[in-house]
Specification:
The protein has a single domain, classed as paralog of FGE (formylglycine-generating enzyme) (Alpha-Beta Complex), CATH 3.90.1580. The chain is 12% helix and 15% strand. It contains seven helices and 14 strands. The strands form five sheets. A four-stranded mixed beta sheet has the order 12-11-9-13. Strands 1-4-14 form a three-stranded antiparallel beta sheet, with no helix packed on it. A three-stranded mixed beta sheet has the order 2-3-10, covered by helices on one side. The radius of gyration is 19 Å and the shape is globular. InterPro entries: CTDL_fold, Sulfatase_Mod_Factor_Kinase, SUMF_dom, SUMF_sf. One of its GO terms (molecular function) is formylglycine-generating oxidase activity. Pfam families: FGE-sulfatase. This is Formylglycine-generating enzyme required for sulfatase activity.
């Protein structure tokens, strides 16, 4: 039986490489972050938790852990924090189940086999729909651009200005979840790697099939902190580049030289690094993760007095691209480092259009009690 979804996983102008200058590829552009982490300290311990993680559970769910209800302060807490991470505010949440790891290639393959689902990246863009989102008179692009494709990382041979992200991203025909680096690549032997090149629509469809849902932004950050109070990272406050590798991220000069201190150039198998206090893996680095919420850059101001089980804003707004509807992503990726993107901070917010797909973008799911 084919999977029938009420969602519409179609391409919009914001995903086409030809329109990079028009749309500024929000995920990449907003990832720029200057400054180095200046807070030091030891890796956090479970004794520093705000809530007791060792709650009784009435059942066990394969591949998931129970996050107890509790309260935390959401928002930025070091000098790398962006404007949209403020003001810090109190959030109360009911308990929920969350996947221990990012959804893997093997898990996504089961979904596709059972449903016949076709991802956004595997579909050819429809010019008639796309041109309605562009200024009148915008010329039709070359047919080589209007192809089933996704954005693939392309390292630069030398150091470059971090202002021009088009130097390290390529709109590549044939790139999709089965072919993460484009034609000629595959996922054989990578069944335990996080699935990538999935749009928000794709993640939603999988979650519905699995009887789960995508996490809210608040749930994701709460789970990421692993029970630690006001820590910068899922492991505590020790800078990401200090000590033993704690996550899959970019070491060296981005995007030209990766020293591979963590042993991985692209994504890593799930569970390659130590889990946080809740037993969750890769809540920092590896691949970005979709959340359910719409993105609004002023949303934290609206909930500054505190909120209970927030579901995000009712409308989306990003001043960098005011006409685009965007969703939140969290967690950073293997392309993040402190000179360019501090995405592995628990508070770091990111966003992109719902049809976006990248080589470093995946997701995990949650479920209610």
């Amino acid at each position: 039986m084919k999977y029938k979804s009420t969602l519409s996983p179609k391409r919009t102008a914001s995903q086409l490489g030809l329109f990079m200058l028009l749309t500024a590829l929000p995920l990449i552009n907003s990832c720029q972050q200057k400054g180095q982490a200046n807070e030091t300290g030891s890796v956090g311990t479970i004794e520093d938790t705000e809530v007791n993680a060792s709650v009784d559970k009435d059942e066990e769910r394969t591949g998931m852990v129970w996050i107890p209800s509790g309260e935390f302060e959401q928002g930025g807490n070091n000098d790398q924090a962006a404007e949209d991470e403020f003001p810090r505010h109190k959030v109360k949440l009911d308990g929920f189940w969350i996947d221990v790891t990012e959804v893997t290639n093997a898990q996504f393959a089961e979904f596709v086999k059972a449903t016949g689902y076709i991802t956004t990246a595997e579909k050819k863009p429809d010019w008639e729909e796309i041109k309605q989102q562009l200024p009148p008179g915008t010329p039709k692009p070359d047919e080589s651009v209007l192809v089933a494709a996704s954005l693939v990382f392309k390292p630069t041979p030398t150091e470059v200005s971090l202002d021009d992200y088009s130097q390290w991203w390529e709109w590549k025909e044939g790139a999709d979840w089965r072919h993460p680096e484009g034609p000629g690549s595959d996922i054989k032997g990578k069944e335990n790697y996080p699935v990538v090149h999935v749009s928000w629509y794709d993640a939603q469809a999988y979650a519905k099939w699995a009887g789960k849902r995508l996490p809210t932004e608040a749930e994701w950050e709460y789970a990421s902190r692993g029970g630690l109070k006001n820590s910068i990272y899922p492991w505590g406050n020790e800078p990401v580049s200090s000590g033993v590798p704690k996550a899959n991220f970019w070491q060296g000069k981005f995007p030209s030289k990766n020293t591979l201190k963590d042993s991985f150039y692209y994504s890593a198998p799930v569970k390659s690094f130590s889990p946080n206090g809740y037993g969750l893996y890769d809540m920092a680095g590896n691949v970005w993760e979709w959340c359910a919420d719409l993105y609004h850059h002023k949303y934290y101001e609206d909930v500054s007095s505190g909120t209970v089980n927030p579901k995000g804003p009712s409308t989306s707004f990003d001043p960098a691209e005011p006409d685009a509807s965007k969703r939140v992503m969290r967690g950073g990726s293997y392309l993040c480092n402190d000179s360019y993107c501090s995405g592995y901070r628990s508070a770091r917010r990111m966003k992109s259009t719902e049809d976006s797909s990248f080589q470093h973008l995946g997701f995990r799911c949650v479920s209610d009690k």
